[in-house]
Amino acid sequence: MNKFLFKQIDNTGLVLFRIIFGLLITIEAFGAIATGWVRRVMVEPDFTFNFIGFNFLQVFIGEGMYAYFVVMGIFGIMVMLGYKYRFAMLFYAIMWSGAYFMQKTSYNNHYYLMVLLCWMMAFLPANKDLSLDAKLNPNFRSNKMSQWVRWVVVLQIFIVFTYGSVAKWYPDWLNGTAPGVILRSKQHYYIIGELLQQKWIHYVVAYFGIIFDLIIIPMLLWKKTRLLGFYLSLFFHLFNSVVFQVGIFPYMSIAFALFFFSSGALNKLFLKNRNRELYTGNEIIIPKYKNILIGIFSIYFIIQIALPLRHWAIKDDVLWTEEGHRLSWRMMLRSKSGTLTIRVEDKATGEKKVYNYRKTLSKKQSRSLKTKPDLMWQFAQRIKKEEKKKGKDVAVYFSSKVSVNSGPYFQFTNPNVDIAAQKWEPFKHTDWLMPSPVDYHKKTK
Fold first, then answer.
1. DSSP of 44-81
2. Which of 20, 53, 279, 394 is most buried, judged by most C-beta within 10 A?
3. Using one digit for the tens of pLDDT, what is the confidence trace for 177-236?
4. How confident is the model at residue 439 (pLDDT cuts 50, 70, 90)?
C-alpha cells in the first residue's frame, strides 16, 4: 500500500491540468457575467432557491454578485499562472461553493464537479512546476509528486462517468425516447438540427452515451486502448459541447486525459521547447500524516460512492420524485414539465385565494417550481412567512401535475396537504408526493 500510494512519479500531468483547469474556471467566472447568467440567476430574482440549510447565502444575492464573480475570475487567473496558488485555489473553492449552494434553479452536474475538483486541487501540489510560485522560489520547484495524487483524480472521474452511465439504464433512455425529447429543442440548429430529429440518431446518442461513460476510464488506463479512448473522448465531449452547450464541462473532461498519458508524451507534445527534466526516480516518501491522509480520502470516497445510491433507500422512483437526484451524476437524463396551482387558505377566516407565483419568480424559477418538491417546500415556507407579516396564519396547498419525457401528465402532489406545515427530511420520502403512476413515463397512444 505504501509503495502504491507514496511512490514518487513525474508531475507533468498535474501541473498541465492546473494550467487548463485555471483557464476553465476563469472562463466560467467571467463567462457567467458575459452570458448574462449572473444577471438572470443571481441579480434579477428577488431571491434564489438555495440548498436547504444555506439560507444565510441570500445576503449575497443582488448587484454585488457581479463583483463576486469578478473576484473569482481573478483567483482563476492566479490558479492558471500558479501565483500564490494555494491561497487562490482555496478561495476560489470557497466562493464557487457559495455560488453553488446559493441557487439550484440552474442545477448542473458540472457545477457540482467543479466544487469537488476545486477543493481537491486546493490541496494538491499542482504549483510545484510551470508556475510563478516555482519561478519566484526555485527551491520550491519539483518535478515529482506522490502517486496517490494522480489516483484520487482518476477515481473521482471514474465515479462520475460510471454513475453517469448507470443512471441511463431505464426504459425511456434505452428505447431512445428521452434522447429524442431532449434533442427536440435542437431542431433549429443550422445543418444538424433536422438530423438530430432522426430516430436512429436518438438510439446512437442513447447507447453511445451509456457505453462511453462506462468504458472510457478503463480505456484510458490501458495503454493499448488509450489513444483510441482519447479520440473517442474528443468526439464525445465536443459533440456534447456543440449540441447541448454545457459550458466548460466537455473541455474539463477532455483535460482529464492528462492524468492518463505518460509524462514523456506530455512533455514532447506540450513542453518540447522547455527542455524540462522528467523525474525518473523510484523513491517512496511516506509522509508523517499518512494515516490522516488515508483516513480523509477513505471517508471522502465512501461518501462519493454512497451519495448516488441513496435514492434506493428512499421510497418510490427517483425519476418521479426527484429525491436523491442531485449530487448523483444523473446527467442529461430526462425532460420534465409541469403545471401548478398554489392555494393559500387563512386558517382563522377560511378565506381562500390562488397565489400568483409568476409575479414573484423568474420564468426559470417558475418552471423548476412545478416539478421540484424541495423548491415547493421552500416556497411554501416563504409564502407562510409573508402572510405572517400581514398578521395571517395560512395553510399553503400545491396542486402540481408532471409529465416525464413528454409523457402524459399525472398528479404529482397531494393537493389537500398543507405543505407549509410539513417538515423537510432530506433523506426520507416526502409523504405529500403522490405515488408514481404505473408506466408514467410512457406516451399516451
1. SSSS--PPTT-GGGGGG-STHHHHHHHHHHHHHHHHHH
2. 394
3. 999 999 999 999 999 999 999 999 999 999 999 999 999 999 999 999 999 999 999 999
4. confident
Q: At what angle do helices 12-34 and 85-102 cross, to 10 degrees?
A: 40
Q: Decide: residue 229, CB within 10 A, 0-12 exposed, 13-18 middle, 19+ buried.
A: buried
The mean pLDDT value for 406-429 works out to 96
**Can you read off the three cell numbers belonging to residue 231?**
479520440
Q: Rounded CA gap, 122 and 86, in Å?
A: 6
Q: How confident is the model at residue 443 (pLDDT cuts 50, 70, 90)?
A: low
CB 370 within 8 A of CB 400: yes
pLDDT of 378 above 50: yes
Torsion of CA 62, 49, 336, 345, to 10 degrees: -120
What pLDDT, on the 0 to 100 scale, is given for residue 445? 40
| Helix runs in 324-399, H state only | 363-369, 373-389
> Angle 174-428-360 (CA atoms, 0-180°, nearest 5)?
85
Model confidence at 444, pLDDT cuts 50, 70, 90, reads very low
Strand (E) or helix (H) holding 211: helix 199-221
Buried b / exposed e along 218-227 (16+ C-beta atoms within 10 A):
ebbeeeeebe
Cα 32 from Cα 230, distance rounded (Å)? 29
The grid cell for 32 is 457567467
Query: How much of the chain, in percent, has pLDDT values that exceed 70?
Result: 99
For the chain, the maximum distance between any two Cα atoms, rounded to a whole number of angstroms, is 82
Residue with cell string 454585488: 64
